[in-house]
C-alpha cells in the first residue's frame, strides 16, 4: 500500500461523513442561492472545519460562483476543492538539514507523543541516519520505560535520567551527547501537560531556551502532537501551546479513527502552522508526511477514482518498469535477432502439422465408437433406476382417481393408464 492509499484509508471516516452530506446537499438544490450557502456553511462547521474557516471558504466560493457564472450546485465541487488546497498552502517537511537536527516533541497526555517519537526514530534509522532519543518525560510513571521499548525496536540510542529528575537537564545532556557523537537527528520527548497547567508550561519554556542555546546552529523543529479525535479542542490546544513555544509543525495522530479530519484545514488557516505529519494507523510506517493535494484528493474523490490513484507511480518507478521491459541501453540489432529466432522457430512447428493432422483423423472413429457405447450404458442405467409400478389390487381404481391438487402433464405418473396405453 503506497502513501496515497494510506492517506485515503485513513480519511475514510472523514470522507464518508463530510462528502456524503455534501453530495446530499448538492442533490437537494436545483440552483445556487443564499439558502444553499447557508446550508453549506452549517455543513462545514459541523464537520469540524471551524466557524471562521467555514465562513471564509463560503465567501471565496461565492466569489468564484459569481465570477464563473456557475448555476448548477454539483459544479461547485471542483471549486470547493481548489479553495481548500489553496488554503492549506505549500507542504513543508521536517527540517533536518543541519546536524544534529533537534526535534522537540510536545503535547498533552494521550495525544500519541511517545508513539510518534518511536515511529520517527525508526524512519530516520531506516534512512541510514544516526538517531538519538532523549527521555525528558520524567513525570509520568513508566514513560521512560515505554520510550526505551520503542528505541530498542528502532535500534537507536537513548539518553535518560532517573524518574522525577529535571527534564531540562535531560535535554541539556542529550544535546551535548548528540554533538559529541556526531548524531544526525536528536528527538526529545517532553512531559505530557495540560495547556492550563502553568508550572508545566513554564518548564516547557525552560526546555525551549536550553535547546535554542545549545543547538544554535542546528536545525530545530518543535512539533506539537494533536489527537484528531478531539476535534476543535485540538485547535484550542495549538493556540495555547503556541504562546509558550515557537511551534514549527503539527503532528495529527489517530486520523484513521475519527470523522473530524477537517480540523487540518482549520489549524492551518487560523494558526498558520503547517501540518507536517499525520498518523493513519498503528503500524510503524503509518506516520506519513502530510501532502495537501493528496489529502484533498482523498477527501473528494469517489471510490472508483481511488483505484487509479492507488497505483500512481513516480517518474523513477516508471523508468524502472520501462527498463525491465526493454533496457535503455539495448541495441536494435539484438532485438532484431530475437524476433528472427522466434520466426524461425514458428516455421519448424509448421512442418510438423501434417503428421499431427493424420494422427487425429485416425483416432476419430475410435473416439466416436467409445462415445456411442457410453451413451447406451447411461440410457440403460437411467431406465433401471426408474421407480417400479405399485400393485394396489382390486382397489387400484381408487388410487388412480385420488389426486392432491392439479398436476401438470409433466408431473403425471409415468406408469399411469394413459401413458401405458400410449406405450402399448
Secondary structural class:
alpha/beta
Low-confidence stretches: 303-322, 324-353, 382-390, 397-424
Record field, number of beta strands:
8
State mean pLDDT (0 to 100 scale): 75
Order of helices and strands: HHHHHEHEHEHEHEHEHEEHHHHHHH
What is the beta-strand fraction?
A: 5-15%
Radius of gyration: 37 Å
Shape: globular
Q: How would you sum up the major sheet?
A: 8 strands, mixed
Strand order of the largest sheet: 3-2-4-1-5-6-7-8
| First-last Cα distance | 74 Å
Helix tally equals 18
Give the helix proportion (percent range).
55-70%
What does this molecule look like?
The chain is of the alpha/beta class and 424 residues long. 58% of the residues lie in helices and 10% in strands. It has 18 helices and 8 strands. Strands 3-2-4-1-5-6-7-8 form an 8-stranded mixed beta sheet, sandwiched between helices. It starts with a helix and ends with a helix. The relative contact order is 0.12.
Give me some keywords for this one.
424 residues; alpha/beta; 8-stranded mixed sheet; 18 helices
Topology:
Layout: H1 3-10, H2 12-28, H3 34-49, H4 51-68, H5 76-88, E1 101-106, H6 113-126, E2 131-136, H7 143-154, E3 157-159, H8 167-180, E4 185-190, H9 198-214, E5 220-227, H10 232-244, E6 249-253, H11 263-271, E7 275-279, E8 287-289, H12 292-300, H13 303-310, H14 315-325, H15 332-351, H16 353-384, H17 396-401, H18 417-423
Parallel strand pairs: 1-4, 1-5, 2-3, 2-4, 5-6, 6-7
Antiparallel strand pairs: 7-8
Amino acid at each position: 500500500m503506497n502513501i496515497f492509499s494510506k492517506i485515503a484509508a485513513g480519511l475514510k471516516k472523514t470522507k464518508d461523513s463530510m462528502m456524503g452530506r455534501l453530495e446530499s446537499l448538492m442533490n437537494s438544490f436545483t440552483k445556487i442561492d443564499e439558502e444553499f450557502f447557508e446550508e453549506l456553511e452549517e455543513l462545514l462547521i459541523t464537520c469540524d472545519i471551524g466557524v471562521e474557516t467555514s465562513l471564509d471558504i463560503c465567501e471565496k466560493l461565492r466569489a468564484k460562483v459569481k465570477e464563473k457564472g456557475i448555476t448548477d450546485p454539483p459544479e461547485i465541487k471542483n471549486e470547493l476543492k481548489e479553495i481548500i488546497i489553496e488554503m492549506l498552502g505549500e507542504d513543508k517537511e521536517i527540517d533536518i538539514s543541519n546536524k544534529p537536527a533537534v526535534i522537540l516533541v510536545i503535547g498533552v497526555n494521550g495525544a500519541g507523543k511517545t508513539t510518534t517519537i518511536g515511529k520517527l526514530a525508526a524512519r530516520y534509522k531506516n534512512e541510514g541516519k544516526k538517531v538519538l532519543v532523549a527521555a525528558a518525560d520524567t513525570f509520568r510513571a513508566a514513560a521512560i520505560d515505554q520510550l526505551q521499548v520503542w528505541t530498542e525496536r528502532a535500534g537507536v540510542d537513548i539518553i535518560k535520567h532517573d524518574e522525577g529528575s529535571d527534564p531540562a537537564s535531560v535535554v541539556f545532556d542529550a544535546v551535548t551527547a548528540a554533538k559529541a557523537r556526531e548524531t544526525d537527528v536528536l528527538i526529545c520527548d517532553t512531559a505530557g501537560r495540560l495547556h492550563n497547567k502553568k508550572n508545566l508550561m513554564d518548564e516547557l519554556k525552560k526546555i525551549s531556551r536550553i535547546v535554542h542555546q545549545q543547538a544554535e546552529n542546528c536545525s530545530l523543529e518543535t512539533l506539537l502532537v494533536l489527537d484528531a479525535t478531539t476535534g476543535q479542542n485540538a485547535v484550542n490546544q495549538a493556540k495555547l501551546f503556541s504562546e509558550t513555544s515557537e511551534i514549527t509543525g503539527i503532528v495529527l495522530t489517530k486520523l484513521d479513527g475519527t470523522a473530524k479530519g477537517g480540523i487540518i484545514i482549520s489549524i492551518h488557516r487560523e494558526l498558520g502552522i503547517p501540518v507536517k505529519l499525520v498518523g493513519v494507523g498503528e503500524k510503524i510506517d503509518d506516520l506519513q508526511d502530510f501532502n495537501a493535494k493528496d489529502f484533498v484528493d482523498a477527501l473528494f474523490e469517489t471510490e472508483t477514482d481511488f483505484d487509479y490513484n492507488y497505483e500512481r507511480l513516480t517518474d523513477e518507478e516508471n523508468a524502472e518498469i520501462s527498463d525491465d521491459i526493454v533496457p535503455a541501453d539495448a541495441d536494435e540489432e539484438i532485438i532484431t535477432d530475437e524476433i528472427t529466432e522466434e520466426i524461425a522457430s514458428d516455421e519448424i512447428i509448421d512442418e510438423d502439422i501434417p503428421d499431427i493432422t493424420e494422427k487425429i483423423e485416425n483416432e476419430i472413429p475410435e473416439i466416436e465408437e467409445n462415445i456411442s457405447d457410453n451413451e447406451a450404458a447411461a440410457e440403460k442405467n437411467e431406465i433401471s433406476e426408474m421407480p417400479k409400478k405399485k400393485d394396489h389390487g382390486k382397489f387400484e381404481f381408487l388410487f388412480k382417481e385420488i389426486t392432491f391438487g392439479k398436476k401438470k402433464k409433466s408431473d403425471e405418473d409415468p406408469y399411469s393408464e394413459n401413458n401405458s396405453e400410449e406405450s402399448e
